[in-house]
Design a protein that fits this description.
The chain starts with 10 loop residues before the first strand and ends in an 18-residue tail after the last strand. The relative contact order is 0.27. The chain has a single domain (11-158), classed as D-tyrosyl-tRNA(Tyr) deacylase (D-tyrosyl-trna(Tyr) Deacylase, Chain: A), CATH 3.50.80. It has three helices and eight strands, in the order E-E-E-H-E-E-H-E-H-E-E. Strand 4 (64-65) and strand 5 (71-73) form a beta hairpin. The strands form two sheets. Strands 1, 2, 3, 6, 7 and 8 form a six-stranded mixed β-sheet that branches. Strands 4-5 form a two-stranded antiparallel sheet. The protein is α/β, with parallel strands linked by helices.
Length: 171
């Protein structure tokens, strides 16, 4: 008997950038300056309850250098830009064969609603924000600054919906 398949968490792959832009079909976002480029993926089981804590973590994560050269300042501290791009391929399961599977990714209609809600939460705190378009092939152009690239996920942060009933106070 195989163990039950563990659903993966809400994921955000963030990259500190000096500039970024998203293009699709015949359209594009304005070029943004320094800030964070975030690929955002949702899985089956994600809900609105995990969005606010993930937004707070993302916006307050200290990944920008202070005057002493230490990563001690957040996106909000610096007043920088934010790019959010929906990215279901963060859930690629490459364990078997050569073709990735995406069975953990949330269905497009539900994921689109969560992405819209997440962008509204972030937009309440960030003035300069660009957004990718859900369900569209996009080209993401960026200059990674550092490079600094990190993965955030709701399970490891103790904020996934299944952790709300018993928060992890040990971290």
């Amino acid at each position: 008997m195989q163990p039950p398949k563990r659903a993966t968490p809400l994921r955000i792959l963030l990259q500190r950038v000096s500039e970024a832009q998203v293009r699709w079909e015949e359209d594009q976002t304005p070029m943004m300056g320094a800030g964070l480029m975030c690929l955002v993926g949702f899985r089956d089981g994600d809900s609105v309850e995990s969005l606010e804590p993930m937004a707070e973590k993302l916006l307050n994560l200290r990944v920008f250098e202070d005057d002493a050269g230490r990563m001690n300042l957040s996106l909000l501290d610096k007043g920088l830009s934010l790019a959010l791009v929906p990215q279901f391929t963060l859930y690629a399961d490459c364990r078997k064969g050569r073709r990735p599977g995406f069975s953990d990714a949330l269905a497009p209609e539900a994921a689109s609603g969560l992405f819209d809600h997440f962008t509204r939460i972030c937009g309440q705190r960030i003035q300069a924000m660009i957004l990718g378009r859900f369900g569209t092939d996009m080209q993401v152009h960026l200059i990674n600054d550092g490079p600094v690239t990190m993965m955030l996920d709701s399970d490891s942060l103790g904020i996934s919906p299944r952790n709300h009933a018993a928060p992890n106070h040990g971290s």
